Amino acid sequence: MKAWQFIATGAPLELREVPEPVAGPGEVVVEIRAAGLCHTDVGVMTDPLWRAQLATVPLTLGHEVAGVVVEVGPGVDGAELGARVGINPLSATAPGFGRDGGYSHRAVARAEDLVPIPDNVSFAQGAAGTDAGMTSYHAVVVEGQVGAGSKVGIVGLGGLGQLGAAFARAVGAEVYVAEVNEAVWPLARELGAREVVRDVLDLKAFQPDVVVDFAGFGTTAGAMEAVRPGGRVVQVGMGTLEATISINTLILNTVTLVGSKGGTNADIAAVYELFASGTVDPLLTTIGFDEIPDGLERLRVGGVAGRLVAVP
Fold first, then answer.
1. Buried b (16+ CB within 10 A) or exposed e, 37-49
2. 107 assigned to some structural domain
3. CA-based nearest residue to 6, from 58, 54, 47, 62
4. pLDDT digit string, tens, across residues 11-69
5. Do 17 and 122 sit in the same domain of this protein?
6. Rounded (5°) CA angle 262-158-222
7. Which of 85, 227, 289, 297 has the smallest number of CB atoms closer than 10 Å to its CB?
8. Between residues 240 and 150, which one has the greater pLDDT?
9. Is the separation of the CB atoms in 110 and 26 below 8 Å?
10. CA distances to 156, 204, 248 from 67, in Å
11. Is 85 a member of any domain?
């Protein structure tokens, strides 16, 4: 079968012929119906610091995977043939990092990493609900401790940020957005943002209780300045892997700075329920299998609103 594989830092993905996977003990094979494109994959392709996160090279990228179980390995309990599932991308053997991922036609996953997709949730939504949905929900609701009446600053309205803003509104928070790309400001307002600003420092006027940084392009320090004294900054975006912050601001404003990585199966299930109920309707653009490299390039230059999902 065909797969788009990472070969080396700085090189484009290469379309290669790879063997069809086989389920081992405790594993299943998932026929891929949708695979989300993530800016993390752009980082893997361009930043050598990401190389250490990959189990092997060459490797099929794509860690947002949704599909149908087509093979069940020995010792698997609770995963049935034909089940519609998303795959939690956080385990050590998750597709796209720990083993070959979703930019192909089939992938192996541990049965314990599967999350059932409700019948009225599409496979494209199912894929976006894994890394993007899970990560955004966990950052806002779990790590950010956002609830009804909270004031929340969202930094970056890409695929993660738009979901984060939607989840914040779904739990009853006031949402304020900082986004340099003014072309997506109308989307912020559609998502219920009260105000949209260009610079993260401009969020300070609204005294947010929590600022969730989905960008990470040197924006952490600004988020710390913008949050109210005693407030909370949740760092999610990894646009760059190093940043300089003010210890003076951290201490004198008693800011809590936490990192948020992914989430749990329960977070994915909560996201799917919000999708199924229509409370959150993610902005998705579907592309074909052959368009994956072009889609990643669009992510790299910042030409995407919402989330790109490849549908083989």
1. bbbbbbbbbeeee
2. yes
3. 58
4. 999 999 999 999 999 999 999 999 999 988 999 999 898 888 899 999 999 999 999 99
5. yes
6. 85
7. 297
8. 150
9. yes
10. 29, 43, 48
11. yes
Amino acid at 216: G
Cα–Cα distances in angstroms (integers) from residue 42 to residues 15, 46, 91, 267, 292, in the given order: 16, 6, 20, 25, 12
175 in any annotated domain: yes
The answer to whether residue 136 is domain-embedded is no
Q: What is the pLDDT of residues 241-263, one digit of tens each?
A: 788 999 999 999 999 999 999 89
pTM, rounded to two decimals: 0.90
Q: Are residues 122 and 68 in the same domain?
A: yes
Q: What is the pLDDT of residues 96-144, one digit of tens each?
A: 999 999 999 999 999 999 999 999 999 999 999 999 999 999 999 999 9
Same domain, 6 and 106: yes
Q: By residue range, what is the domain housing residue 198?
A: 145-259
Phi, psi of 5 (to 5 degrees): -115, 140
Listed in sequence order, the residues at least 6 apart from 294 whose beta carbon sits closer than 8 Å to its beta carbon are 287
CATH number at residue 282: 3.90.180.10
Both 273 and 253 in one domain: the answer is: no
Same domain, 194 and 247: yes
